[in-house]
Amino acid sequence: MQRARCYLSGERAVVLELEPPVSLESQQRIWGLNQRLRDHESVQEVIPGMNNITLILRDPQQNALDAIERLQRWWEESEAEFPASREVLIPVIYGGSTGPDLTVVAEHAGLTPRQVVELHSSSEYVVFFIGFQPGFPYLGGLDSRLHTPRRAEPRVAVPAGSVGIGGSQTGIYPLASPGGWQLIGHTSTALFDPRQQPPVLLRPGDRVRFVPQQEGVC
User: Fold this and answer.
1) How far, in Å, CA of 145 to CA of 149, rounded?
2) C-alpha distance from residue 49 to each of 16, 138, 193 (Å)
3) pTM summary value
4) Per DSSP, what are the bridge partners of residue 45?
5) Residues 202, 173 contacting (CB under 8 angstroms)
6) Fewer beta carbons under 10 A from the terminal one: N or C of the chain?
7) Beta strands at 207-212 and 87-94: parallel, antiparallel or unpaired
8) pLDDT, tens only, 167-178
C-alpha cells in the first residue's frame, strides 16, 4: 500500500496525499473513498484528485484534528471502486498549426512526429479525474516514451479542444485558457457543454482512445 500523509489546508480542508507513483489502482481506491465520504455528516464536499483527496469540513474548528486521524484510517481501510466505464473515441488532427509542439515531443523522445502520433493514438487511456477546467480529463496510460515536461513558459491562450502532453499524462482542454502543456493536436469533440446534462463528456473511469484524422505531419 502506498504511504499517505494527511494535513490541514487552510481553515476548512483536510488533504490526504499519496506518495508517487500515480497508478490506476490508487485512483480506484481514491474513487472508493470518495463514494464512502460523500454523504458523511461532517463533510461538506469531497474533491478527489490525482494521488490525493480533499475534504471540505462543515465545522473545521471541531472536526479538523479528528478528521486527519480518521481520514488516514479510512484510507487504510479503503477498497477499490470500479465505476461503470464507457469507451469514448476522440478524433484528433495531429500536428500543424493546432499541434505546434508535436515536433518538440518527437525531439524529446528521439522519435519522428509520425511515430509520436502512432504511439499516442495506439494506447487506451483511463480518466483518472476531472479538474483544472470543467470537463478537463487527466488521462493515465501515456506511453513512457512520450513523457515530456511542460513548457517552461505557459501559453497565454490555448484553444479549446487542444490535445496536449504534460509530464506523464495527456489530456484535452475543454475551454480556451492559458496553459503549459505541450500541444500535439486538436479535436472538434466538445468536452464541456453547459446546455447538456451532464455538461461534461467524460467521467472518472472512462476509457479513451484517440483516433487520428487528417494529420499535419509527414
Assistant:
1) 12
2) 10, 10, 22
3) 0.82
4) 56
5) no
6) C
7) parallel
8) 999 999 999 999
